[in-house]
Design goal:
327 residues, alpha+beta, Rossmann fold, OB fold (Dihydrolipoamide Acetyltransferase, E2P), 6-stranded mixed sheet, 5-stranded antiparallel sheet, 18 strands
Length: 327
């Protein structure tokens, strides 16, 4: 069911000379959704985000927000706000003045804009740092300030360009939880560009996988993970094996593969790698036809019957664990 605050991409296209960066994509983002644009470098996800923000001119097609085509509007009049990868804070302005900057540009009086900036800092738990300069903040604190600055304009859609990439792994995981919590609290649409499948799965209600300037697959995060439709999505979303059988190509999750004796299995191979990962052991095996698969075993299962590199092994799976792939 459609809402008046839905965001729709209609044959959205971006060309740079002869290069097609985004190739006539169509997609409807329902209002209040946390969506991740996921894909490798150069797939078109960042160009799509910049067109949504108004920082790139749309070559063809339209961006419809709340029933209105916003493709030709300047960034400040679109109902969107962008949080940049490098946060882009003004080094000479205090935290509160950074957050209030867009309202200052709109001519809002000082008491009103500082009051609103204070509310935003409270929202992101940065009130105590209002008078500091960006250089006096940690990476996570700078990110919160950038979020507050983006949200002060009361956008209908918040656009996030790889917002966690500059953070260390532990902080990244913590900030994921905070972003998700904030999106739920605000109830607005978040569109988050990332090339990390773990980040997309942790955050997104909906994942839009892009490849070669097009949308390869889109849907609820669990659906995309459990049932990839193409070999590219299966490989990129991670934790899947793409296996070519005489009857066609399939995807099987690594944790669905079982080890058995070679003569009683669907596939026979030879172990090429064993990697201990704490709770699991990743076992890699080479198959006929230069194929390689990975089985993810619990540490209990592996160490109960350990295998060595070079050993012959059979690999099996339940029939419902295999998903047929299109080209």
């Amino acid at each position: 069911m459609r809402s008046e605050l839905d965001l729709e991409l209609v044959s959205l296209t971006k060309r740079y000379g002869e290069t097609v960066a985004v190739d006539a994509i169509n997609h409807l983002f329902h209002a209040g959704t946390y969506a991740c644009l996921l894909g490798p470098s150069g797939c078109g996800k960042s160009s799509t985000l910049r067109m949504l923000a108004g920082h790139e001119i749309v070559t063809e097609g339209a961006i419809i927000l709340g029933g209105h085509d916003i493709s030709g509007l300047p960034p400040a009049k679109r109902g969107t706000a962008m949080m940049f990868q490098n946060y882009a804070l003004f080094p000479h302005l205090s935290v509160v003045d950074n957050v209030a900057f867009s309202l200052r540009m709109k001519g809002v009086d000082a008491p009103s804009r500082l009051k609103r900036a204070g509310e935003m800092l409270e929202l992101v738990d940065m009130t105590a740092f209002a008078d500091r300069l960006p250089a006096q903040l940690s990476g996570g604190q700078q990110q919160r300030v950038a979020l507050a600055r983006a949200l002060i304009t009361k956008p209908q859609v918040l656009l996030l360009d790889e917002p966690l990439s500059a953070l260390d792994p532990f902080l990244r995981i913590r900030m994921r939880a905070e972003l998700k919590s904030l999106q739920r609290e605000l109830g607005i649409t978040f569109i988050h560009v990332t090339h990390g499948q773990d980040e997309a799965l942790a955050l997104a209600d909906e994942i839009v996988v892009m490849n070669n300037a097009r949308i390869e697959q889109a849907g609820p995060a669990r659906e995309v993970f459990d049932a990839p439709r193409t070999a590219f999505v299966a490989r990129f979303i991670g934790s899947h094996n793409v296996i070519a059988l005489p009857e066609g190509k399939i995807a099987v999750r690594s944790d669905e593969l079982r080890l058995t004796t070679p003569d009683a299995a669907k596939l026979q191979g030879r172990i090429t790698g064993v990697e201990y990962q704490g709770t699991h052991v990743a076992l890699t095996a080479a198959l006929a036809g230069e194929q390689e698969v990975t089985a993810l075993l619990t540490d209990k299962d592996f160490f109960g019957a350990p295998k060595d590199v070079g050993e012959a092994v059979g690999l099996d799976w339940d029939s419902q664990a295999a998903h047929a792939l299109s080209a």
